């Protein structure tokens, strides 16, 4: 996995009170309690912007903000990340630190096509834990802020997808190469579809484990086989066709 060496010129280093996140995210009592349980400190650590990384802004990505969260436990709830994303009107990259280790997390965030003042935030992708003193990698080469954001996200998305489905990286790369699909949106659509289908497979497995009646178990087993076949199509089929079929089947 990867950690980035954020440019010194981009250092911001501002501690953000949890109350500010509550205010801008419209936090309810349950969300505030979640922050208290799981978050020790939030630091707005770096500001990647035209003036700090010498790249031109794009329509969808004017800046990218880096937030460092010191977590109280190793499994930080994604609702914490989503609340911060909701509060900050820029694409975000998170560094989550706990117990001498750190990992990256992010969701693909883009302006809404229907309302440019609102943001659409996708599923969260999380990198592997690495030691705090692990060697960091310079920022990827990019032509503008939009391209930099995609290059920062790509290894997080690819890494998590391959952990979920061993061999997925090779299958996906083959599919994308065959169909000349290189956009991050295509890769994220595939990764999100795989995550959703994996959840569906696990949901059916849980139902099967609870069911005692033979005839109902037969029916659930058939449902499980169909769900596994759908997962195989997503992971082994051509990427664009598999995602299109998944979205059509699940969203009408």
Give an account of the 3D structure.
With 252 residues, the chain is an alpha+beta fold. The protein is 50% helix and 22% strand. It contains 9 helices and 9 strands. It has helices at 18-25, 29-38, 50-53, 78-87, 145-164, 168-179, 184-210, 214-236, 239-251, and strands at residues 4-5, 11-15, 39-48, 64-71, 92-98, 101-111, 119-126, 130-131, 137-138. The strands form 2 sheets. Strands 2, 3, 4, 5, 6, 7 and 8 form a 7-stranded mixed beta sheet that branches. It has a two-stranded parallel sheet with strand order 1-9. β4 (64-71), α4 and β5 (92-98) form a beta-alpha-beta unit. α1 (18-25) crosses α4. The longest helix has 27 residues, at 184-210. It is globular and about 65 Å long. The model is unreliable at 175-181 (pLDDT under 50).
Order of helices and strands: EEHHEHEHEEEEEHHHHH
Global structural class: alpha+beta
Annotation field: number of helices = 9
Rounded mean pLDDT is 86
User: Which term fits the overall shape?
Assistant: globular
Which value, in Å, is the CA radius of gyration?
A: 20 Å
Percent helix range:
40-55%
Poorly predicted ranges (pLDDT <50, ≥5 residues)? 175-181
Report the count of strand segments: 9
Approximately what portion of the residues adopt beta-strand conformation? 15-25%
Major beta sheet summary: 7 strands, mixed
Provide a concise account of the structure shown.
The chain is an alpha+beta fold.
């Amino acid at each position: 996995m990867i950690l980035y060496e954020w440019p010194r010129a981009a250092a911001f280093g501002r501690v953000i009170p949890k109350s500010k996140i509550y205010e801008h995210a419209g936090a309810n009592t349950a969300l505030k309690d979640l922050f208290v349980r799981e978050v020790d400190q939030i630091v707005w650590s770096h500001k990647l912007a035209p003036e700090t990384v010498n790249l031109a802004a794009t329509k969808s990505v004017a800046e990218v903000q880096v937030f460092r969260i010191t977590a109280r436990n190793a499994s930080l709830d994604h609702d914490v990340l989503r609340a911060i994303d909701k509060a900050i009107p820029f694409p975000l990259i998170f560094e989550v630190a706990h117990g001498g280790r750190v990992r990256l997390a992010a969701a693909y965030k883009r302006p809404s096509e229907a309302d440019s003042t609102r943001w659409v935030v996708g599923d969260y992708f999380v990198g592997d834990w690495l030691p705090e003193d692990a060697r960091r990698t310079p920022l990827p080469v990019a032509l503008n802020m939009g391209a930099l954001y995609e290059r920062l996200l790509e290894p997080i998305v690819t890494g998590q997808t391959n952990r979920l489905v061993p061999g997925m990286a090779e299958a996906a790369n083959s599919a994308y190469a065959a169909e000349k699909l290189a956009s991050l949106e295509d890769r994220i659509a595939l990764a999100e579809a795989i995550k959703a289908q994996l959840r569906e497979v696990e949901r059916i497995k849980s139902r099967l484990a609870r069911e005692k009646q033979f005839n109902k178990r037969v029916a659930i087993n058939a449902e499980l086989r169909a769900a596994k076949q759908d997962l195989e199509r997503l992971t082994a089929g051509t990427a664009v066709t598999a995602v299109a079929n998944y979205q059509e089947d699940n969203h009408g």
